[in-house]
Amino acid sequence: MATTKAILVDITKCIGCGSCEQACKQIHGFPMETEVKLSATALTVIEQHGDRFVRRMCMHCEDPACASACLVGALKKTSFGPVTYDAAKCIGCRYCLVACPFGVPRYEWSKLAPLVKKCDMCAARQAKGQPPACVEACPVQASIVGDRDEILEEAQRRILGDSKYVKHIYGSDEVGGTSVFFISDVPFEKLGFATVSKQPMPILTANALGDGPTVILVGGALLSGLYWITQRRALVALAEAREKSIRERN
Amino acid sequence: MTTLGKTVAAFPRISLWRTIVTLIFAAGIYSMYARFALGFNVATNLTDPQPWGLWVGLGTLCGVGLSAGGFAIAASVYLLGLERYRPILRTSVLISFLGYCTVCVGMMYELGLPWRIWHPIVMWNRHSVLFEVSWCVMLYTTVLALEFSPALLERLPWVRLRETYLRWHHSILIALVLAGTLLSSMHQSFLGGLYLITKGRLYPLWYSPYLTTMFYLSAIPAGLAVTIIAIYLCVRSLNAQVDMSILSDVSRVIAPLLAMYGIFRIVDLINRDALQYLLLWREETGLFWLEIALLVVAPLILLNIEKVRNNPMYLYWTSAVIVAGFMTNRLNVSITSLQASSAMYYVPKWTEFAATLATIVAAVVAFRYAVIYLDILPKNEPRQRWVVPSVPSEA
User: Fold this and answer.
1) ipTM for the complex?
2) pTM, entire model
3) A47, A106, B210, B384 — which has fewest CB within 10 A?
């Protein structure tokens, strides 16, 4: 995990021009109409909250709930940051939509072979050393990309260097940390950001799953023991009945 | 061969029930067309904030939970030696088997890409609760098919094959029941575990780190209630001969299980400091109380009355209340408790109801014919040939 990529969105800089939305649609071949909410054809959108513009997209969690939920492992956290989706594996159960704490993944409800749609941080482009399309398109550098450590340092520098910023980097510790960070001069809860726990979501299910082997071992031993007792009692009852009948015959 | 049906009419009479069943099937066929030829958008009201709806809540969660009677009765008879329940063993295994079949059929509707339903067999993610559930359901459906198979295979006309199969079946039966009990215990609870990851979004009256235990504790009495309902209907309308006092005994097991579940729910609410939600003026509060009233309070009061415990018809209606309460609980967890956080008011489309209903009705019809044509329940002289004695027979 030497160079994990991350995106920083500086809400104070965003002018709401929608270049990122357009670039994203273009690179995915989606119809170009502007959409107000994330959808299967809009993997990033600009939401307006008061006079601030907030870009919504997949947070690319460090320990993603969707990847832990996906029963066939179609969703994966790659070693360089993006959470990617392997459409060839997906069976369409939509547990990822249920699991995502940010409500990001979208489903192609109108298609007969529907797939899950979500931002993959342009993993293919990044593998070739290119920045994500949305970041490249931003005319005012409200979104920047870089190595996660450096991006976090940069965010830190900005919020400490200017008193207008809220002293928190959204994504630094949310659900155990993400690969998309937001900094803002307006409190995050006023901008529609989800209030989530600091704990990685997969821990919640890992604890329960960890009980599985115990249930098998203890339960198996218990049930086998009970069966042995049942068997034994039946044998004893049978032997007693036989002895009794022999005694009666004599 | 004794069959329970006295006469099989050459032409089906047009009766009220047959008309209803036909209408449900017709609606079901349209729903099937809507789902597979027109897509989710036409067949369902599912949306991104509400990705799981009635098919998961009713079809899967209720379907699996209400099929818990099979493993409970099988474990009681074979592992605990409670021979008392042997007469209703085959019925409860059949109910479970058909129940799991409806769940598997429901899966085909539910999955966006149902032709890839086999993917979990080769593509593993052991961190996924759903992966564990899918494997358990897959294996347990196989176990149920094997547990039930003698009822079909004993009708084979080829003596050698039949006897060989039944002997083989006898030799693996205890292992099957043991595996079935463990698999059931695992996935009944993991169905609740699916919702552990929705922390912060599931309404606090339902979100608990012990969702797994709660799902398990509630599934057993609900599954037994379904067994009571089915046996009662078999006796009433299919002329089956069952010692009805067995049903009273089953109800004596249900009552403490429900009480235990109720206490567990209360202790859990206290533990999580969630008592203040009990009296908030909200839709969730009403649904919670409805669920507790139907699943815990009403049945416990009813089962405390001796006249109810000893009357099959009263037991039947009490069981119906338990099943209704159980379904309320599962639909609350899977649908209503998520509505506030998703800011989405989901009302299932009629085709969602029709698809699930048609699948359930198909299972009921299959159950009916199985009871009529196979040796599921004894008629006058119970035939014990298929029964594998727990006592070795060499003596």
Assistant:
1) 0.91
2) 0.91
3) B384
